[in-house]
Each structure stands twice: as C-alpha cells, then as structure tokens.
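Ligand-bound model needed. adenosine-5'-diphosphate.
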Amino acid sequence: MADRSSSLRARSDDGRSFAIPDASGTPFIAGTLLIVATAGERHLGLVEDREVDDDDGRDALHGRLLGRIVDTGFDPHGGWPFADATVEPADAETIDLVHAAMGATLEIGVNLSPPIRPARLLAHRFNRHTFWVGQSGSGKTYALGVVLEQLIAHTSLPVVVFDPNSDFVRLGELNPDADGPTADLLRQRDIRVLRPSTPGSEPLRARFPSLSLEAKAAVLRLDPVADREEFNAIVHLSDTLSADEPGQVLPALLGSSDPVRRALGLRIENMGLLNWEVWAGHDREATLVIDERADATVLDLGGFSTPDQHLVVALSVLDDLWERREERRPTLIVIDEAHNLCSPALSSPLAVAVRDRIEQIAAEGRKYGLWLLLSTQRPSKVHPGIVSQCDNLALMKMSSPVDLAGLAEYFGYAPAALIARSPWFRQGEALFAGGFAPAPMLLAMNRRLTPEGGSDVRVPLR
Ligand SMILES: Nc1ncnc2c1ncn2[C@@H]1O[C@H](COP(=O)(O)OP(=O)(O)O)[C@@H](O)[C@H]1O
Ligand SMILES: [Mg+2]
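Prediction:
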C-alpha cells in the first residue's frame, strides 16, 4: 500500500483527544499507536475508533493523546490543543522509550497492533484492584500465571492466591525449558503452597478460636436475628470459644442444663464440625504462614472433603488481612474463579461473610495496601459493588454480547472498539487497559515458565 501517512493531518480541540478527518487508505484501526507531531511537540496517540465512510465518504479516526514524547522520555500529562499536526505510525524505539519512561517493565506478551513489540505492564500500578474476565477456556488462568510469574520475579509484593481448582499448586516449580532472567529470579523466590490434604505439602488450615465472633457465627450458620438465642449464647461464650477448640467445648454444651447451650452443642455435632479437616489442631493456620510474607502463598481451596471448608479458610485469611490493615503492608490478593466468592446470589451466612469482606476490601482496601485481582468468566456473577472498584481490566475472549455490553459501561477507560473485538480473540489473546497498561493494548500472552495445575487428566495417546 502507498504510504499515505505523510499527507495525514490531525487536530485536537482539547489537547487530550485527537481527530484525523480523512484517514482513507491507511491501515490504522482502533488500538494503533501514532505519533502526532506539531511544530513544537510530539504526542503519542491511540486510535480508539475508525469511522468508516462518514457522510463525506471518508474514513475518520478518533483517539486519545496519551502524552508527549519529550527529551527526558515521556510526559503523560496533556499538551495544548492544536489545529494541524502530522501523523505517522509509532515506531518500535518510541514504544520502548515510552515503556521505560512509564515504568512498564513486566513483559507479559507481544502486542497484536503494530509495531510488534513486547507488551509490558506497570508493576507499580498493581496498587489498584484488577478485574480479569473471559469465557471459560479463553486462557485466563494460564495468562494469570504469566502475570504472577512476572510480579513474583520482578517485585517484592507478596501475592496470596485463592486457587479453587488447584491450578497454581506448581507455581514454585519451573518448566524444564524455562530459562532467562525471569526464570532465574523465580528460582530464588519463596513460594508456599498450602493444600488441604496432600502428603508432603504444608496443610491449609484455619483455627476456630482465632476467628472473629461474626465469623464463628457464620461458620455455625447462625443469623443474629433469625437465630437470636443461639447467637446470643455464643456472644456470652465468646471468651471460652476464643480459648478452646470446639471439641473441648462440646461436652459441656451437650451436658448443659441451659436448653440454648445444648442446642448450640447439637448444632456443632450435627454439622459434623469436629470432623472438618480444615481445623488446625497441631498444624499452623494459613494466616500465620501468610504473615511470613513469602513472595507467593497459594491456597489450594479445591480439595476439602466437604463444601464450606474452603470458605472458612477464605474468611479467616481475608478477616486477618483486614484486621491488620493499619499495618499497611502491601499484599496482592488474587482470586481465580472469583464468582465463587463474590456472586450477588450467594446466601449462606459464611459465603455472604466472605463476599462482604471482599466488597469492603474492594471499597476501602487500596489505601491500606490490600489490592485485589479478581478473575471470572461471568462479570455479572461478581457483585457490582466490587467490579465498580476495579481500575485495571484484563479482557480475554468473551462471546456473550450481554456480558460485553456491561463491561463497556464499567470500564470507560477501555476503548469500546477494542472491547468489541473480544469475541474474535484466540486463546491467550487479551485486551489490557487501565492504570497498569501503558496504553490500552491488544496482545498475545507469553508462554508460562511454571507448570500449570496439578490435576490435569490427559487423554492417553498411543
Ligand atoms: N497462551 C496459551 N498458550 C498455550 N496454552 C494455553 C494458553 N492459554 C490457555 N492454554 C491452555 O488452554 C486450556 C484452558 O486455559 P485456561 O487458562 O485454563 O482457561 P480459563 O481459565 O479461561 O478457563 C488450558 O489447558 C491451558 O493449558
Ligand atoms: Mg480458569
């Protein structure tokens, strides 16, 4: 194609956005980075929309100015309006310079829009909440692993992974072909994997006496109003229940002449609470392990013998992080399959307690250094109060128009034309937008350095 860019003209009425009234014959589409230059300034511009064949029969481009390329690197603050600027595609050197100037150092893939350069994220902007969404099989968990490897290798931000499908239990190992600086750094990192009952692994446990009164009530499925008498009994027993394990308290409850205490005892016995393997006993509870602030702590929530036990661990960990928020110790809380813990439809007291705590961390955790990364296949199954707090977006393939429409509303910083391409993404392709991306970008994820999952069942081949 003939080079039309030398004759292209752009204008900006506000110093923040730009328009190219006639871009007919150019290959530039949403996602393309351009250098828009006036006599005195060079701006980096992102095409957000191509209006094909407008009323005058021309293709018009609209986009945003990301910042100015200056001697010292890159200035992300806006410039002045301009009436006439030249336009050319951004070159590889400029992209690398902008990444370096912005601190985009975590290399996670390769850009899909020219120039084809490494796609990088800003490590320091994980100090916001991140929403990660894509349909089942789009490659979320795999890609999340790529990002976690980068964070663990190149930052000292402790990561706590809520892993419902045992997908990250091998995060501390390396693939046989893994090499390079990131692999070398990963080899030195302290990665703990806590599992319900896998011989050789550190156990994943909670301690009943250490739970808050509200958490104990939720474990016992007690509602303060509907079950006011039994709830009141645990209020009066709070000292005992904070000192002794349920097994030590149970005989006294069952033998009590007080019918409410006896009812509480029957409840504990009927629920089979004493048989739950989640209780710490002589083991260490997960909160103590997390408190050691290893580079990553993986909580394998999938393998408990009965439902609810994983919620006990989740609640104990979230409550403990929240309880100690004033210590302001940065922690990235990663929740894969977040709809399991954040759905608006959850109704059991324990599930609601977990969700409420996540909602509170979403609303108030940022300033205490409690940052969430939530991954899900259905945005509508994460409570809107949580989604609306997310300033970073990773979007993988999603075919459902309903789900996509909702996203464009929440994540105004992600250009609608890029969100609209999601149904055509291949596995491992993604849109990253928001504070942690140097600019909204489409990319193909890099390969993992660490092995996935522990429980993949493969088809036996001859
Ligand atoms: N970028 C990729 N390169 C190679 N294989 C991938 C990639 N992304 C996903 N896969 C594979 O595809 C399957 C589904 O990916 P997964 O990350 O589990 O999807 P999701 O979490 O979105 O359901 C897995 O077996 C994974 O190994
Ligand atoms: Mg997954």
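The longest strand covers residues 60-70.
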